[in-house]
Amino acid sequence: MTDVLREVTDADLDAIEIGAAILGTGGGGNPYIGKLRCREELKKGNCIPVIPLDELADDAVVVSLGGIGAPVVGVEKIEEGEECLRALRALEQELDVKVDALISVEIGGANSMEPMLTAAQAGLPVVDGDGMGRAFPEMQMCTWSIYGHRECPAAMADEKGSIVVIRETPDDVWLERIARSVVVAMGAAAGLASQPMRGDFVKRAAVPNTITQARNLGRAVLDAHARHADPVQTVINQENGQLLMTAKIVDLERHLKGGFAVGHLTLEGFGAYRGDRGRIDLQNEFLVFRRNGVVEVCVPDLIVVLDSDTGLPITTEMLRYGQRIAVVGLPAHKLMRSPEALRVVGPEAFGYDDVTFCPMETG
Amino acid sequence: MTDVLREVTDADLDAIEIGAAILGTGGGGNPYIGKLRCREELKKGNCIPVIPLDELADDAVVVSLGGIGAPVVGVEKIEEGEECLRALRALEQELDVKVDALISVEIGGANSMEPMLTAAQAGLPVVDGDGMGRAFPEMQMCTWSIYGHRECPAAMADEKGSIVVIRETPDDVWLERIARSVVVAMGAAAGLASQPMRGDFVKRAAVPNTITQARNLGRAVLDAHARHADPVQTVINQENGQLLMTAKIVDLERHLKGGFAVGHLTLEGFGAYRGDRGRIDLQNEFLVFRRNGVVEVCVPDLIVVLDSDTGLPITTEMLRYGQRIAVVGLPAHKLMRSPEALRVVGPEAFGYDDVTFCPMETG
Predict the structure, then answer these.
(1) ipTM rounded to 2 decimals
(2) What distance in Å separates the CA atoms of residue A28 and residue A135, rounded to the nearest whole number?
(3) Which one of A176-180, A213-217, B24-28 scores highest in mean pLDDT?
(4) Roughly what angle, to the nearest 10 degrees, separates helices A210-227 and A231-239?
(5) Residue pairs spanning A and B at CB distance below 8 A
(6) pLDDT greater than 50 at residue B1
(7) Domains, chain B, ordered by start
(8) Which one of A237, B49, B61, B184 counts the least CB within 10 Å of its CB?
(9) What is the biggest distance separating any 2 CA atoms in chain B, rounded to whole angstroms?
(10) Chain A residues with beta carbon closer than 8 angstroms to that of B161
(11) To the nearest whole angstrom, how far is the Cα of B94 from the nearest Cα of chain A?
């Protein structure tokens, strides 16, 4: 299970899908369609070579790419399939560079698959790592941006053939703002490729080995299903996580605000947690978990909602009143917990002025 | 007054301001700030050379540019001053071309001044003509687009240093949609320069001599003021127009919808028009004039609202209950009345399925 991944094969795709959805912490979009497209590419004879992060050449030209848009739209509006490839080509044209490898901006959710799909289409390898180790709603919330890489220029492509290059912005927050506006005009789904990075920077800034991590996590869940073992406990063991609560969803408020799914769910514990009240706030992803009014886990640590029977992840748009869930906390990678990172992905960055991040294992 | 304009001098600027505002038919933004900036450039020793349309070389590389945004925002958010210049530079970089001349996308309102300002800054001439002969709210509503020029790529620049290149879109309506979305993110005001045109196309497609027209129209109004002559009649004589009504605004409904000022005003005639009820519909610009429920003048013909005393134009954002106005109709240029043009700028294009364009002089 801990072998080094050199290539993503058909057998890996189902596992990566599950692992990536768990790491998506409710958001990031559904990796299902991307998985099917990757499978098609493999059937055509294309392949998805993987470069382990520590084998990346220092001067390699690495492009981070992924889909941008509202996950809830991605469910109904299926991509044409070459959005990210066209964004990559537009970026190459803009900068006149030859790209050596691709990397995912976020392993959580649909963007686990996008760079693998583009890699198969373009004949390029993907790097085993990503820019978040999870999913987050905005572009500047990735390690590239946090650790000093400017994401401009960024190229965007939609399914109708439109191509937009955001050539300059004062900072990556402005890039995010303009890109978000463009993607709304494009119909809330587009591919985006941003300013290439050097291999040595990627080795320093990427959350390492997250394709392998997603694959192994998904494999463990599938294996637990096959063995009739407890899949929730399997996720916890695999990721060094913690069971926060088994609970029923007794209230659910969720609405679209500025292109994001925003709201919270109220939980009533069962089993060992009978008598506990829980609450999870969300903005595409799950942001804060409270037990009886007290914050226990918050971003950037991962709050994962699993079906309590199957251990399969439930995304924000699939939450329903009455669902029986297991809430699990997983520790974020240390690159997402540094002071620089917390300024961008900590609770304050999401408007929680009264919540201070505390690593979940010390809470 | 009909001399050929070879250069815009300080003395011309006040006149162009008035003429352009009249041709703006209520929209197009206020040319005042642009005039002051042009004046500053002239004071610095820069100049604004003008090329008469018929003297343009067939192979000249001509770029159409202007401000894009909500006129109502332009009133409070003053441009930094080099937005269009930076958009031009970004377009040159995108296409690796040397530009020979600039032309206004619309002579009506603020975009009369923008190309002159950029010309002074860049050391380029402006062509005496424009793409509308008036103002219209959307980019595809210009003769370039109507007569077969694709406006992509288009480069946009804002006052904060952001630069966006819209490289490809399926058509100019999609370009408008994406550009509109970008300008909202940019704070509702930006400069935009689009795909260069050849001189021979511009000679065929531009509404001719409209800088001269605006200057002469404004001069005539100023001259009428000086002579204590009737300025409203002066506008009518100068532009071969028609007085539609002298009236008081007795009702005014105006709201922002999708970045546009939308609404209508109700008029009660006075003087020779006592007993008449009028109504003008607007979307940034005045679109349709009805007398006693019957359409008399509609787009693309120009509906101009003048202060009945001064003959100075009143833009949509300056309309007030109780104002005494003169409503004047001016015939659109024939390039805006062709079947191709009417599909894009006729009443149907603005959602009036029950209104058919009829040239105002035959109505």
Answers:
(1) 0.86
(2) 5
(3) A213-217
(4) 150
(5) 68
(6) no
(7) 7-210 (3.40.1610.10), 229-362 (2.40.390.10)
(8) A237
(9) 62
(10) 168-170
(11) 8
